Amino acid sequence: MISNYKPYKIKYSKKYIIEAIDGDIISWSGKYVNKCERLLSKITKIPYVLLTNNGTAATHCIIKAIKYKYPTCKKIYIPNNCYIAVYNTVLLEYDKTNIEILPIDNETLNINLNILNDLELNAGLVLVHNLGNIIPVHEIRKLRPDLIIVEDNCEGFMGKYNKQYTGTMCLASSISFYPNKHITCGEGGAFMTHDLDVFNFIKKFCRQGQTEKKFIHDILGVNYRITNLQSAMLYGQLELLDEILKLKVDNYNKYILYLNKYIKCGKIVIQKNKSNTEQSYWMFAIIIKGNKSYKKICNYLISNNIDSRPFFYDISFHKHLCNIKKINTRLYLTTNIHNEVVILPSYPELTDENIQYICKTICNYIDTEV
Fold first, then answer.
1. Measured between alpha carbons, how far is 125 from 73 in angstroms, rounded to an integer?
2. Is the pLDDT of residue 334 over 70?
3. What domains lie within the chain, and their CATH numbers?
4. Contact between 186 and 233 (Cβ < 8 Å)
5. Distance between CA atoms of 82 and 130, rounded to whole angstroms?
């Protein structure tokens, strides 16, 4: 079976993990936590980085940052068709009546930018770079400088807008180190911001709200700390980041090459990139126009030893979220968009032979089933 994703060279980190174990500090206070935070800051040019135990925790922190910095903000906008962590973490801080769902664009699979002028003044806007396709945050900031923007950058890490890395033009951003991300430590995540005041608050929040005096706490906090063992693994992955990105860019270009005939005739559509943005190359998704069942193509691919994954569902599919208000429903995609989108294997060590075989299988499916 060709897996949808596999981490890259995780054994490379073994030397750092052993060092952490031999040093007897395996909890959050070990040196690899700080080493990773400093390296991430250097790479992204975002000055304040806090590692967390997973990407969902980091995403909760960006929502918490809005509430802390802008306590009078009462409206939070979230895109439709994104990973559930975004909705769940917003609901940890805001009531459903404070939330509205935004439509996505059928070419980018990201927020529909035509909706921006309809948003309330001084509202919070949570942006998600779906599947690694990058939202032009610089353009949104020009058009709506009043909006309080945070980025769920878990899928957009290492992408760019306006020649800057994602997460650099907002109040705060989150990234994830889950095993299907560019780099991993099993779980893990990071909260990132340019605002020192916000950083210090989130740091305290993630450490049980503790003051400078041990066991004295002055705010409601949580334990979102990462361990030194996780960070040791992450440090090795960070050292491989350029190598990983090169392989993923190569794989993306091979997919485009081998599917080119079906892309040209419109049977397959690739996510459209907005101008002055660069993909993060997280996942490779195709839209098979007219496909009526994701389950059908999923089973077809499995029968040919290829793993795939579906696109994120319309919010109405989630029982606990289905009554959240949608803004401007005329712009919404059909709730069946998930039947047309197929996310194909994209791990760094895919071979040219693997990709040719996957593309041939996809084309055979279209010819016989669509």
1. 11
2. no
3. 10-102+109-239 (3.40.640.10), 242-369 (3.90.1150.10)
4. yes
5. 7
Retrieve residue 297's tokens: 């193509």
Give the C-alpha separation, 271 to 113, whole Å.
15
C-beta separation of 312 from 338 below 8 A: yes
DSSP string computed for 332-352: PPPTTHHHHEEEEP--TT--H
**Are residues 174 and 151 in contact, defined by beta-carbon separation less than 8 angstroms?**
yes
Distance CA 68, CA 48 (A): 17
Q: Is the pLDDT of residue 219 over 70?
A: yes
pLDDT, residue 335, reads: 60
Q: Is the dihedral of CA 276, 281, 283, 288 positive or negative?
A: positive
Q: CA 102 → CA 85, 118, 190, 317, distances in Å? A: 16, 10, 25, 15
The one-character DSSP state at 267 is: S
**CA distance to 51, 94, 119, 122, 367, per residue, from 75 (Å):** 28, 9, 9, 8, 47
Q: In angstroms, rounded to a whole number, what is the distance separating the alpha carbons of residues 332 and 81? A: 10
Handedness of CA 295, 301, 304, 308 (dihedral sign): negative
Helix (H, G, I), strand (E, B) or coil at 76: strand
Helices 228-239 and 241-258 sit at what angle, rounded to 10 degrees? 60
Helix (H) / strand (E) element for 99: namely: strand 99-102
Q: What is the Cα gyration radius of the chain? A: 21
Residues ≥6 apart with Cβ < 8 Å to 142 = none
Question: Is residue 292 within 8 Å of residue 341, measured between CB atoms?
Answer: no
Q: Which amino acid is at 247?
A: L
The structure tokens listed for 293 are 């069942």
The whole-number pLDDT of residue 330 equals 67
Residue 121, SS3 per DSSP: coil
Q: Which two tokens stand for residue 220?
A: 């409601």
Structure tokens at 248: 């993923």
Give pLDDT tens digits for 71-82.
999 999 999 999
pLDDT of 256 above 90? yes
